[in-house]
Amino acid sequence: MSRDTTEPEFDTPDAALLEDSAEDLYEHAPCGYLSTLPDGTIIKVNETLLAWTSHRREDLIRRERLQDLLNAGDRLLYETHIAPLLQMQNEVQVAVDLRRADGSQLPALLNAVLKRNRAGEPVLIRTTVFDATDRRAYERELVRARHTAEASEARARALAQTLQESFIPVPPEIPGLDVAATYRPAGRGDEVGGDFYDVFETGREDWVIVLGDVCGKGVEAAKVTALARYTIRTAAMQTRKPSAVLTTLNQALLNQHIERFLTVVYARVRSNRRGCTLTIASGGHPLPLRATRDGLVDTIGRPGSLLGVLAAPELRDTVIQLAPGDTAVFYTDGVTEARHEEAFFGDAPMRRLLVSYRDDNATDIAVRIVDQALDFQDGFPRDDIAVVVLKVPESNA
User: How many CA atoms within 13 Å lie on the side-chain side of 29?
Assistant: First the structure.
């Protein structure tokens, strides 16, 4: 026989209260109730749970076990975890899927309590069931959002890497000279840094090495880096004076009203039979180091003003000669300002390295400098590190 679930009509509030019996509260509670024997056999179920699952009472009572209403995974969970935990602690809360009559799943939260007799033997399990459909939908939305965020972050990292690689190209070969560069981004390397370098030809046996550092990181720094790099390349075809090229770059930064400064060291490289001649100008950038084949190390060039700040920056050209066996090292402050606790790396380790490894090629020297700076800060750089090494081979003698 089907149960009459038609709600009675009440003439007064008092009549409604009298009718609001314990049985009615059980049957039409806002949550599902069912009682089972210790083996899971269902012996009582309320109308709320029947309505949620579309099962008939007569199909469940003494005919089904609670675990039979679970999917395969949750049924295994019941046998291996839920039932043993009930025996140990008399109460379990768990999220499962209940099988509806049509075979679909009802996400549910179960709160099961084990009742014992006076002898301590288990006699009954009372289970409260909460519809978790909205919660499951929310959890799935969170998972989708997390996957979307992870995919977006992965795309951003890939874009940052691609963009950064455009600012740190593989140097071309310069006939008669040995040139190499290496770069290590700050932190995990998932953000576009402000360091950049470039090596390009401006004429027969006439080349340019430029290395710079834009204040800050991210997209805004990348815009400035791109502007600097292409302004320098354009200006280098119009004038051979490094100071004039940097003056043009400074004016371009001011014209664009860019609220970021940058430092740049620019070197014109001209090959000759005696090695090569460097004409250097620095716009607020650390001066390069020169190591001779005899083991002497000094700075080359003269300090200059930051770019993108003053309308008339102080920029001066310095001409020096590199002989066969000599090396010039261009670097960003990510090397010298590498920190370990309160100590800075400085340029002294580079000077010692250039003396000790002056017979090495340009690539090995560049890698050794970066490795030492990384080791000093336990392999986790706080700032980008860029190094360009130019060496005149002994064979040029």
Answer: 17
